[in-house]
Amino acid sequence: MQLLDTYLKAVARFLPAAERDDIVRELSENLRSQIDDREAQINRPLTDTEVKALLDRLGSPLEVAGRYQQNTRVLAFGRVLVGPVLFPFYTKVLGFNLGITAAVIVIIGTALRRPAASLAQGLLIHLFIQFAIVTLIFSLVEMGLGGRPGTSDLQRPAAPVAPPRGRDKLRVSRLESLSQIVALGILLAWLPALRDFARSAFAGAGLAPAPIWRVVYVTLAGLWCAGIAQASVNLFRPGWAGFRSVARLAMDLVWMGMVVITLSAGRWVGALDPGAPSAVAQAATVEGINRGLFIGLVVTSIVSVIMIFFDARRLIRAT
Amino acid sequence: MNPELFENLRLELRRGVLTVAVLTQLRHEHYGYALRKALAERGMAIDENTLYPLLRRLESQGLLVSQWREEDKRNKRFYRLSIDGGQMLGQLLDEWRDINDSLNRITGRALPPNRDTQEGEPCNSSTRT
After folding, report:
1. How far apart are CA A148 and CA A146, in angstroms?
2. pTM exceeds cut of 0.90
3. Could you tell me which of A193, A200, A212 has the C-alpha nearest to residue A290?
4. Mind listing the pLDDT tens digit for each residue in A69-116?
5. How far apart are CA B52 and CA B60, in angstroms?
């Protein structure tokens, strides 16, 4: 029954906290009764393959949990643009992308002491672009699904599959993989715009970013490409859950390496023209920004270690 | 005939009836899986992902009451119709009978006795207009 427990834990992750234990307890009892019933019919215990087939027929943990949402929300503008099945993924991707965009723009703008109006304008433009692109992509996916939840290949419970091998005990939801591709794809496309925004913001303040930011730029682009590649593989091979765990751990380690290298640079911002008389007046600003970045990088490296720990633990448990 | 369209219309037709079937079956106490089996045996097969959340929804609407109890050395959640649920079921069954009578009257006029004969086609096309 380890397979069933793993499945129920995965369902629990997507359930509303207030009802989580109750729903999982009830679902667990119903599934165990179904398994008992089947075992009584065939007069032997079900094999792992048969239990897996039963769970596959039930659907991905996210789909199962989605059915327990009391308020099925949609995005509609005249007609439904994002239906109830895709909506949770849509809000997740939107939250992720808008959160990162807002954080980066506000941090850069505040550090460089940009006027509030200019900061708000830059922020709104970037947020609007992200919102429009995410919404457009999800609307197209919804159109691709034909507005008939439960009938598309992405939503249909998977057919019985081969027995679990090694660490591939659970399937990766195709909708999750698709959401990851959309989120990282948009961030990747947005990266050059962010670089240009940062450059002009620094130049406007008479400051220059240190060369280490090139390393950060290239590594970030590489990491997001790797994330898209991993999600693309899992989109077509949802059974390769172990592959996702390994890829995520590898990406965590690369991210950690990038943070450490950036931290070891020591200075991340300098005056645009160190010989200019204004450079003396800017010294305090430069020091303040560098101090802030140092604290930010230390916090990021601590968070990275925690991420590595959890992803490594997940991988060990899956094997 | 478009089988996909038929499947959509069939699901739409069944959706409203499922609640009546579940409420009717829960005049006697059942837990989730046993209820699903009982309904399937009576020709009303329901997917787990539809039935189990539906039970919780009906309970939150006050139409069902539930109780955790041990059976066969296992704790199960048993559902049964509440007093409000009983009244609601009565109204829904009256409505169902009215709909059924109306449909019988409509189809009795619109469809020929033998649906396989060619005469059925003009009737169908006239109902579309």
Report:
1. 5
2. no
3. A212
4. 766 677 777 667 777 767 877 888 888 888 888 888 888 777 777 777
5. 13
Q: Whose structure tokens read 């045996």?
A: B41
State how far the Cα of A109 lies from the Cα of A118, in Å rounded to an integer: 9
* ipTM (interface predicted TM): 0.76
Note the pLDDT tens digit of each residue in A13-38. Answer: 778 778 889 999 999 999 999 999 99
For the stretch B86-103, what's the b/e string if a residue is b when 16 or more beta carbons lie within 10 angstroms of its beta carbon? eebbeebeeeeeeeeeee
Give the closest-approach CA distance of B33 to chain A in angstroms: 5
Q: How far is CA A12 from the centre of its chain?
A: 18
Closest Cα partner for B67 from B30, B13, B92?
A: B30
Nearest CB to A30 within list B4, B50, B52: B52
| Alpha helix ranges (H) inside chain A | 2-13, 20-42, 48-58, 61-66, 87-111, 116-144, 174-204, 212-236, 241-264, 278-318
Residue to substitute from A1, A21, A30, A36, interface B, most B β-carbons within 10 A: A30
Residue A273: both structure tokens together: 């023209």
